[in-house]
Design a protein that fits this description.
heterodimer; A: 119 residues; 4-stranded antiparallel beta sheet; 6 strands; B: 4 domains; 21 helices; 71% helix; 0% strand
């Protein structure tokens, strides 16, 4: 089963961190997490997202496209990145989610992937 | 549970407190008694939760009954009968109703409600029930914990946990799983499953030694309550005593496992003056009583290991040879890779890090071990002692990546930073 682990964190925390804190809390923490995912052979894909301010939302209303700056929903925590994993069951997915560094200072959402049948 | 605290009428604080107290003390007893003959745990839970709700309305107005337990039981029984009438008609239903009404008459007449919690636990840990759901089922039926609380502790989604609990209860009813303490000849094996379930609940709670997470901390206490119950109700079973001893040893060290700032403290660096001595004495006494029965088992050995660690930390006398011998005995009983890992650490203390590394099980052969944080942390420690800093660093990286407790992650990061460059 494939699951998407989504890491939501408060972007505002980021600029306030010292270089050392960024290194320790972010790069070091995520690099060992990714290493553990890789070593276990479960990682299928991952990415870090640029800040929501650089994002745009699009919606078509009455046949006309509406384009807005920023995120779809205003929340304290924003989607900062994701990990796509392939594990036997949801318990395994949840234990990987609990290990995600974002769980310590944000929230981590786990969603099973809706598997599409090959044509 | 939650039922007890769900309604809050004005001035009902006393009634609420009494209801809460009764719920905590008697929940499992009432469920066990209600479900013992019908084997319908869900119906018993529904009926009891309605009785608690009614108590919160009735008691503040009319005063607490002299025997709150009997009051709740009588109401719950009537509710169960009403619910049953609403659901079914016919011959079989008539028979069932007769059993229920008899029980009602009995409950109202009897001053003491017999304690059938142990029988309930045996039903929950029956071989026909999936091993993974036994501990959650015991926590729910005997203690009344809700699915959400249990789900967090076992790292499962609340919806999935709830579904599995409902299915397990259906199984008890439909498969005709009996509510009774097994006969002498099958007792040891069946008791093992009950004790395993209690231990599983305890270890889930134990992973949060800081006690920051209320759910997990509570679970440790609840599991201790269950272990005490099992030991009280089966005083002649050495493994029941052994499990309680083991849990008390571990629980007695809870304060020493974290610094004031919440940082993780490994056993070797713990301050024994922070340990709970009366609790350790109680554990020691239980272990001695169990040993006198001369029937060794897994939990007694694990308790003896705890005892050996406590002795060493208190006296400073190295007893690693004894510890390694105990692990040999434990491995002969339960050949788990985790036991093999701990045994390797004891060997390292006796014969050096190389010997320990050689005694370690192979993670390549066991994927569960490859994702087990303590395996990589232990490996890193031995590699570092053996002077293999490069390999130790990689093992620490994996251990940190696999750990979910931030305080333990920070501890491992400090260890890694202390490696030779």
């Amino acid at each position: 089963m494939q699951y998407l682990i989504m890491a939501y964190t408060d972007e505002k925390l980021w600029p306030g961190l010292s270089a050392a804190a960024k290194e320790q809390r972010f790069f070091a923490a995520y690099s060992v997490y990714v290493e553990a995912l890789n070593q276990s052979g479960v990682l299928k894909g991952m990415n870090r997202l640029r800040p929501v301010a650089e994002g745009v939302t699009v919606r078509v209303s009455e046949g006309k496209a509406q384009v807005l700056d920023g995120p779809y929903a205003e929340t304290k925590e924003q989607l900062g990145g994701y990990f796509l994993i392939d594990v036997p069951d949801s318990e395994a997915a949840l234990s990987w989610a609990a290990r995600c560094p974002a769980a310590e200072h944000g929230v981590v959402e786990v969603r099973p992937i809706w598997e599409m049948r090959q044509p | 549970m939650g039922n007890a605290a769900a309604v809050s009428p004005e001035g009902g604080e006393q009634a609420r407190n009494t209801a809460g107290l009764v719920a905590r003390r008697s929940y499992g007893k009432l469920i066990a008694f209600l479900a013992a003959r019908t084997r319908d745990v869900s119906a018993a839970e529904d009926a009891l939760s309605e009785a608690f709700a009614l108590a919160l309305k009735d008691w503040p107005a009319n005063g607490c009954p002299t025997n709150p337990e009997a009051w709740l039981l009588a109401v719950a029984r009537r509710r169960a009968i009403d619910a049953f009438r609403g659901r079914r008609r016919g011959e079989a239903a008539g028979e069932q109703l007769r059993i229920m009404s008899e029980g009602l008459a009995h409950a109202e007449a009897a001053p003491e409600i017999p304690d059938q919690r142990l029988a309930l636990m045996f039903a929950c840990a029956h071989p026909a029930i999936d091993a993974g759901i036994r501990a959650p089922l015991v926590l729910q039926t005997v203690l009344g914990l809700d699915a959400k609380t249990i789900a967090s502790a076992f790292l499962t989604s609340p919806a999935a946990m709830s579904k599995r609990l409902v299915r397990a209860k259906e199984k008890i009813r439909e498969a005709g799983i009996p509510f009774r303490i097994p006969a002498r000849d099958e007792l040891p094996e069946r008791l093992g499953a009950v004790l395993d379930a209690i231990y599983a609940a305890f270890t889930e709670g134990w992973t949060d030694p800081a006690g920051a997470d209320v759910v997990r901390r509570d679970l440790t206490e609840e599991a201790l309550f269950l272990a005490r119950l099992a030991a009280d109700l089966l005083p002649g079973e050495p493994e029941a005593l052994g499990l309680l001893a083991l849990m008390l040893y571990a629980h007695a060290r809870r304060r020493a496992r974290r610094q004031a700032e919440g940082e993780y403290v490994p056993l070797a660096e713990q301050d024994p003056s922070q340990w709970d001595s009366p609790m350790m004495l109680e554990a020691e006494g239980l272990l001695r009583r169990a040993a006198a029965m001369e029937s060794i088992g897994r939990y007694q050995i694990e308790a003896a290991l705890q005892s050996a660690h406590v002795f060493r930390c208190r006296t400073g006398e190295a007893n690693w040879r004894d510890v390694a011998a105990l692990y040999d005995a434990l491995y002969a009983l339960v050949a788990s890779p985790v036991v093999a890992l701990n045994r390797a650490l004891a060997i390292a203390e006796v014969d050096g890090p190389q010997a320990g590394l050689q005694a370690m099980p192979d993670a390549a052969a066991d994927p569960r071990l490859a994702q087990y944080q303590p395996y990589w942390a232990a490996r890193a420690e031995l590699l570092s002692r053996a002077g293999a800093a490069q390999e130790a660093r990689r093992a620490y990286d994996l251990a940190i990546g696999l750990e979910r407790d931030p305080a333990v992650r920070r501890f491992l990061e400090r260890r890694r930073a202390a490696l030779e460059p």
